Amino acid sequence: MSLPHVTRIAPSILSADFARLGEEVRNVITAGADWIHFDVMDNHYVPNLTIGPMVCEAIRPHTTAPIDVHLMCEPVDSLIPMFAKAGADIITFHPESSKHIDRSLGLIRELGCKAGLVFNPGTSLSYMDYVMDKLDIILLMSVNPGFGGQKFIPATLDKLRQARTRIDQWQNEGGQPILLEVDGGVKTDNIAEIRAAGADTFVAGSAIFGQPDYADVIGKMRSEIARAEAGI
């Protein structure tokens, strides 16, 4: 799977209606979303329990859009093959949840998925430094992980700029493309400044699934992204 150099909107099904999840996935992609973001929480690494590979496998037939699996679990290595088999296209995990980050990233790629690291608000970006060659995506949490509907932490903007600088330097020196994703409190009224800070992939949960018209919200988000890009 190729990841083109454009912006992407990835609705998080954590905020979807689970009683009709397949329909929700189809509707949000029809409304213009690019990816499906899939939040996996184990009630150990984060204080919540959500969904596993069986649900990923169940929604896979409902869309050809990339499924972006975010593992908030510890440990991760045993789960990675399960989600790859279930139809995940992208698998990301937190560096604190792996004893051997390089090995976990390598495992994801060996299974044919794009690989990435997730950084909590208090996690240093220095984890990137030794594994840049194995990264396809970096995900910055703009809330403390565990629950949907939280407010965006403003300090994430500076962290996005720092991550963007590291990625651009890597790519300018001949490294592979690395996407920069943000997750937590992303809404129509702040997505422009998030884009201006360097993000190119945007996870939004309740801002989309909690609204009556998915296409309207996604359209407004794209307009705000375009406004930010005009000023970059």
**The CATH topology is what?**
TIM Barrel
Total helices: the number is 8
| Widest β-sheet, arrangement of strands | 1-8-7-6-5-4-3-2
Main sheet? 8 strands, parallel
Please give the CATH architecture.
Alpha-Beta Barrel
The helix-and-strand class reads alpha/beta
| CATH class placement | Alpha Beta
Helix content: 25-40%
Q: Give the radius of gyration.
A: 16 Å
Number of strands: 8
CATH homologous superfamily identity = Aldolase class I
Q: What does the average pLDDT come to? A: 94
End-to-end Cα distance, whole Å, is 28 Å
Tell me what portion of residues adopts beta-strand conformation: 15-25%
Question: Which segments are poorly predicted (pLDDT under 50) over 5 or more consecutive residues?
Answer: 1-5
Order of helices and strands: EHEHEHEHEEHEHEHH
Shape: globular
- How many structural domains? 1
Describe the structure.
- The protein is of the alpha/beta class and 232 residues long.
- The protein has a single domain, classed as Aldolase class I (TIM Barrel).
- 34% of the residues lie in helices and 17% in strands.
- The chain has eight helices and eight strands; from the N terminus they run βαβαβαβαββαβαβαα.
- Strands 1-8-7-6-5-4-3-2 form an eight-stranded parallel beta sheet.
- Helix 2 packs parallel to helix 3.
- The chain is globular and about 45 Å long.
- The N terminus is likely disordered.
